[in-house]
């Protein structure tokens, strides 16, 4: 049984992204659950363990194997079954030696933005007392890397996924679009002359790479750099911002 569960946002890879509140939570946690995501993803585990070490935490570390999603299932059913299995693995990992204080999980980015850790926590029975410690988001890291504001003056911003961009195209009325969780470079399906793009991967890490320009000029280069980086590291986390160009107005 998990009495208190703390979800700590750790940013997008920079050890400096951990907030003072997050550092304090790591020091006060009794147990920290650490996912093992398989070969080729040692960087992710390494960042988590360095954050824990540098925070001065003395928490007991409990590792669990992260499950794979079943590609044969329809998308919504696949994700739901995956979340169920993750919750079971949390509880199984703690069953042999129940925690004697708060259990913490380090969440990449921020627990509230396109992350399902809170949804997984809701599957626990009995339900724990949940604490969420906010973190630097991929969107903040992206705009900082490019030194740009997220929005235009008085302009709206929409946040979506690569899946929705591919399936539904550019949202009606959108001016600025941030795309997350895009494993297939959905921007390739847009009008290549009509948009500017700001793209980044491994944001905040020493491996950080970025591209910016008119979509027609950088689309192919982004796809190529993305594939090469994924082959080199065994994984990639990237996001991008798209801005529609008004008719007759050049990119800024």
Write a structural description.
The relative contact order is 0.16. This protein starts with a strand and ends in an 8-residue tail after the last strand. Helices cover 33% and strands 23% of the residues. A hairpin with a 7-residue loop joins strand 8 (195-201) and strand 9. The strands form 2 sheets. The protein has a 5-stranded parallel sheet with strand order 3-2-4-1-5, sandwiched between helices. A 5-stranded mixed sheet has the order 6-7-10-8-9, with helices on both faces. It is built from 7 helices and 10 strands. It has 252 residues and is α/β, with parallel strands linked by helices. It folds into 2 domains: 4-136, 3-Layer(aba) Sandwich (Cobalt-precorrin-4 Transmethylase, domain 1), CATH 3.40.1010.10; 139-244, Tetrapyrrole methylase, C-terminal domain (Methyltransferase, Cobalt-precorrin-4 Transmethylase, Domain 2, 2-Layer Sandwich). The chain has helices at 20-28, 42-55, 75-95, 117-121, 138-146, 162-168, 215-233, and strands spanning 4-9, 31-36, 60-65, 103-107, 129-133, 157-161, 176-180, 195-201, 209-214, 238-244.
Please state the CA-atom Rg, rounded to the nearest Å. 19 Å
Tally of helical segments: 7
Spatial order of strands in the largest sheet: 3-2-4-1-5
What's the rounded overall pLDDT mean?
93
Order of helices and strands: EHEHEHEHEHEHEEEHE
Derived structural class: alpha/beta
Tell me the count of domains. 2
Shape: globular
**Low-confidence runs:** none
The CATH top-level class label of the largest domain: Alpha Beta
Named at the architecture level, the CATH assignment of the largest domain is 3-Layer(aba) Sandwich
Q: Characterize the largest beta sheet: strand count, sense, and whether it forms a barrel.
A: 5 strands, parallel
Helix content: 25-40%
Number of E-state strands:
10
Name given to the CATH homologous superfamily of the largest domain: Tetrapyrrole methylase, N-terminal domain
């Amino acid at each position: 049984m998990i009495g208190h569960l703390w979800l700590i946002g750790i940013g997008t890879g920079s050890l400096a992204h951990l907030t003072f509140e997050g550092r304090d939570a790591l020091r006060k946690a009794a147990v920290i659950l650490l996912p093992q995501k398989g070969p080729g993803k040692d960087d992710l585990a390494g960042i988590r363990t360095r954050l824990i070490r540098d925070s001065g935490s003395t928490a007991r570390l409990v590792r669990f194997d992260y499950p794979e999603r079943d590609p044969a299932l329809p998308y919504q059913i696949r994700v739901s079954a995956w979340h169920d299995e993750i919750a079971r693995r949390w509880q199984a990992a703690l069953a042999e030696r129940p925690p004697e204080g708060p259990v913490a999980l380090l969440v990449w980015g921020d627990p509230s933005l396109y992350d399902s850790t809170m949804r997984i926590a809701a599957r626990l029975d009995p339900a724990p007392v949940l604490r969420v410690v906010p973190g630097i988001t991929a969107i903040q890291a992206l705009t900082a890397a490019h030194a740009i504001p997220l929005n235009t003056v008085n302009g709206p911003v929409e946040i979506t996924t690569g899946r929705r961009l591919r399936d539904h195209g550019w949202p009606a009325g959108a001016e600025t679009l941030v795309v997350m969780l895009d494993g297939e470079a959905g921007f390739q399906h847009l009008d290549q002359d009509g948009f500017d793009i700001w793209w980044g991967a491994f944001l905040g890490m020493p491996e950080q790479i970025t591209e910016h320009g008119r979509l027609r000029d950088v689309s192919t280069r982004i796809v190529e750099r993305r594939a090469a980086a994924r082959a080199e590291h065994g994984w990639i986390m990237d996001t991008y911002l798209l801005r529609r160009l008004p008719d007759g107005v050049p990119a800024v």
